[in-house]
Write a structure and sequence with these properties.
Rossmann fold; Gyrase A, domain 2; 5-stranded parallel beta sheet; alpha/beta; 539 residues; 4-stranded antiparallel beta sheet
Length: 539
């Protein structure tokens, strides 16, 4: 159990002794920014003074009198009722052994058996992934890693839009290129896909089927199905390179099968009405600002209809929480889908939709844009090759997904402290180098000789890692992990500057400092893993 958790439990026990049963979640422990205010602080006396009908400072005094002081040097009441804790050195030092013994598991929470389904990327399988999908892929994967680390059961899901008109356009585009390969007249459809990748797909299908495919009446279905399969496999390969994998691939075509849409329409019938030949769903009875069409006047379904079936399908698989990671243009989608689920008796909060804002890629001070249909799109794979997967993943994790992002490609490639991913990875590599140089010196996992300010700051930061993981999971905020990583790197560099780590004339102190290096290296590795970034041993 970490220092913060111990403090929370200590305060909870103090409340219990005073006859008040308080939930641990109501007790917040924060790091003190000013060392004169101690190591940690809580506002519990202010927040819960109503339970006693007393002033916060009076409640703080009552709590302090009931605290277990075995790991606390002293306690002070500050301001309107804050309680500041000054921890004993050995209490802080104990975190080193905890980190080293737990290793890759440090920061992980016990499994809580709450099941999350996180759907992200879900790009149409009509071509290679372009850079516009990169941010959602990085965010979705980092979120899944963090949720898993925080104790949740996480399923990563990709929804394949394989039943719409865009797949028909893909098939038509491949057939045109197929005819071109055979030296036959061809016309690329105006709404088709004109990229080089379509030519490559046509070549692969030609190898598999030969010229006789053009003689088949169902050739368009072959071009559609096989083309989509090839494109999806390429998408999977490029995502894997980006550090992103999925547990489940769900097909829109399969969702539409087995009369699932018709059954859903029948279920929703009490919530519908017909106007001007179209069928509307009465979503305004719930959260929406206007009713939504589910069947157009020509009898075709809107895209909203199979999406309802898909979300109901996900809930039927036993998930407690659904998270959809979508583009910023889906804002109006949120309440209409929540409303549809509410018609099935689900609470609105069972579905969360995280909207990903646009990214501008900047190179040589200039923004560049591209069109997927025109075939000049800059692909995810190309960007990864140019700036590296680690830089891509780190830069995308650095900012809240709800804000626009300018991705400076030149900075991402720069090998200096100005580049935040280089700064963090260099700290890890420096720690590895120190430990390798001093591998003959025995580690003092009790860290009993640590006392300098830079050492104490590092100990407190390491102790806080599990709480940062929980906060990042609760707020769906990978940027909290990169903030932690940056601060850890800064503290490591400050420690290295202030302290002589390898001192063969003082092996006891060196043993403690090397143990601290080992703990810092481990936590840096764990934190970088959560955002899909490697922890190099050499730079």
């Amino acid at each position: 159990m970490g220092i913060v958790d111990k403090l929370k439990l200590n305060i909870q026990n103090a409340f219990n002794k005073l006859g008040q049963n308080v939930d641990l979640n109501d007790i917040v422990i924060e790091h003190s920014r000013d060392k004169t205010h101690g190591d940690y602080a809580t506002n519990a006396a202010m927040k819960l003074c109503r339970l006693f009908g007393k002033a916060p400072r009076d409640v703080a005094t009552l709590l302090i009198n009931e605290l277990d002081m075995s790991e606390i040097e002293k306690v002070e009441i500050a301001g309107p009722g804050f309680i500041n804790f000054f921890m004993k050195n050995d209490s802080l030092q104990s975190i080193v052994k905890t980190v080293v013994e737990k290793g890759d598991e440090y920061g992980k929470q016990a499994r809580n058996h709450i099941k999350f389904n996180v759907e992200f990327v879900s790009a149409n399988p009509t071509g290679l992934l372009h850079v516009g999908t990169a941010r959602g892929a990085a965010y979705g994967d980092s979120l899944c890693r963090i949720l898993d680390f925080a104790g949740y059961d996480v399923t990563r899901e990709y929804y394949i839009n394989d039943a719409g008109v865009q797949i028909t356009h893909l098939g038509e585009s491949i057939e045109a290129r197929y005819r071109e390969l055979m030296g036959l007249p061809f016309t690329l459809p105006e709404d088709g896909y004109h990229g080089e990748d379509v030519i490559e797909v046509a070549k692969q299908i030609y190898k598999e089927y030969g010229p006789q495919l053009l003689e088949k009446e169902d050739r368009l279905e072959v071009f559609k199905q096989r083309g989509m399969e090839i494109e999806l496999e390429r998408i999977k390969d490029h995502l894997k390179t980006f550090g992103v994998t999925f547990d489940v691939f769900s097909s829109e075509k399969a969702i539409r099968g087995n009369s699932a849409i018709e059954k859903e329409i029948e279920f929703l019938k009490p919530h519908t009405y017909v106007q001007d030949g179209a069928t509307f769903l009465k979503t305004t009875d719930y959260l929406d600002d206007k009713d939504r069409v589910i069947i157009k006047s020509d009898g075709d379904y809107t895209y909203y209809m199979p999406d309802i079936v898909y979300h109901v399908n996900k809930m039927s698989r036993g998930f407690d929480q659904l998270i959809d990671v979508l583009g910023a243009d889906h804002h109006g989608y949120i309440n209409r889908m929540k409303s549809a689920l509410m018609m099935h008796g689900y609470k609105p909060e069972v579905l969360e939709i995280e909207l990903i804002q646009m990214v501008r890629f900047i190179k040589n001070g200039q923004e560049f844009k591209a069109s997927k249909r025109a075939g000049d799109a800059i692909t995810l794979h190309e960007i990864c090759e140019e700036v590296g997967v680690d830089a891509m993943r780190y830069f995308f994790a650095m900012r809240a997904q709800s804000g626009h992002l300018d991705f400076d490609m030149d900075l991402a490639k720069e090998q200096s402290s100005n580049n935040p991913v280089y700064y963090a990875q260099y700290a890890h590599a420096r720690l590895c180098s120190i430990l390798e140089s001093a591998k003959d010196i025995a580690l003092d996992l009790d860290a009993s000789k640590l006392s300098k300010n830079s050492e104490m700051d590092l100990l407190k930061h390491l102790a806080n890692f599990p709480n940062v993981v929980l906060d990042a999971a609760k707020d769906r905020a990978p940027y909290k992990i990169t903030n932690y990583i940056h601060d850890l790197a800064e503290l490591v560099h400050a420690f290295y500057t202030e302290c002589r780590v390898i001192d063969r004339d003082n092996l006891e102190v060196s043993g403690s400092r090397l143990a601290l290096c080992k703990a810092c290296k481990q936590v840096m590795k764990n934190a970088l893993y959560l955002i899909g970034v490697s922890a190099p041993t050499h730079m």
